[in-house]
Amino acid sequence: MKIEGKAKALAIYVGEFDHWHGKPLYAAIIEKARDRGMAGVSATRGMMGFGANSRIHTTAILRFSEDLPVVIQVFDTPERIELFLTDVEEMVDEGLVVTWDVDVVQYVHSNKQIPAGTAL
Prior knowledge:
By secondary structure, the chain is of the alpha+beta class. The chain is built from two helices and eight strands, in the order βββαββββαβ. The chain has helices at about 25-35, 80-90; strands at about 5-15, 20, 25, 40-45, 50, 55-60, 70-75, 95-105. The strands form three sheets. Strands 4-7-1-8 form a four-stranded antiparallel beta sheet, with helices on one face. Strands 2-3 form a two-stranded antiparallel ribbon. The longest helix has 14 residues, at about 80-90. The model has no long low-confidence stretch (mean pLDDT about 85).
């Protein structure tokens, strides 16, 4: 998939321990995005944050916290993001979902083959 110029970003803020059909929610969303042929997706684990209930989640040693924030970002054409939102709305029971317009400056990948058995 190649995208350039006007595109859309989607960010999904969930908890690390949120699940969908027995899988971590962030993993399920990434797999669904790949199945749908989305241009790109990443999940990032937060070090500290809070959501609608204002309860702070942190990695600080003296504060034991669970359910750290995870942000899943998806980039694609506006039309494909809008279609994918239907899946996201079904999967996310608690969290924040936002979109915004972006300008893709560069989106390239190598044609190199990944050797068999390489951990990804």
